[in-house]
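Minutes, structural biology subgroup

Action item carried over from last meeting: produce the structure token record for GntR family transcriptional regulator (Mesorhizobium calcicola). EB confirmed the sequence was re-checked against the source entry. Recorded below for completeness.
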Amino acid sequence: MNIADQIYSATDSATQDRAQAIRDQLRDAIVDRRLAPGTKLSEGEVGTLFDVSRTVARAALQMLSFEGLVRTERNRGAFVANPSPEEARQVFASRRLIEPGIAVAACGRVSAADIAAFRVQLDEEGRFIAERGPNARRSEIKASGDFHLLLASVAGNAILQRFMEELVARSSLVIALYGRSGVSACGHSEHTGIVGALESGDSSLASRLMLHHIDHIEADLDLRVRAGPALREALNF
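Output recorded by EB:
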């Protein structure tokens, strides 16, 4: 590789890293429900807020589009995905197919260290539930999703873990749009029951509890759309 190639490679890598960092911040805002479904994400505004070129902003938005968190429309731009009721049903139908199996797999692999990590996660959820205000609420929502991602990690299947990352993110969008309750419907007590089943090695119980848990989350949905803050406010600029 000559000097010119090395400079180009370094520049391209730096651009990719910057786009990834912007993607991560936008994704967190979407998953945490600080950016509501349907929010417009213009390349110009994203570029201005993060002090990057439109090319870098476009790359970040394309990453989110590949994950299903952003949709792009010709001649209109990019928007936070706005799942339809049918898409919402499909998200939870997918979770019913996948997560009971993840619970069974995790039950066969869980260690004492994993149980300790789950207990820390549950304590964090409980702390946010006890607090008040929008920041605590968003943190609780994120902690609830992190529980499911931790379970997928313990199950030891990297492919399923990637699926779960997308499903948890899409679920957050669905809950933001259709959730009846003001807080995450992902019940803390149900998480506690699942961890108890894992600790006792009862895979059948863990699977049943997970299925009931997913049913409970979906039962909290209706068709009312919730408005959210603009891009600038959601990202605290």
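Discussion: The chain is about 70% helix and 5% strand.
Next step: EB to file the record with the rest of the batch.
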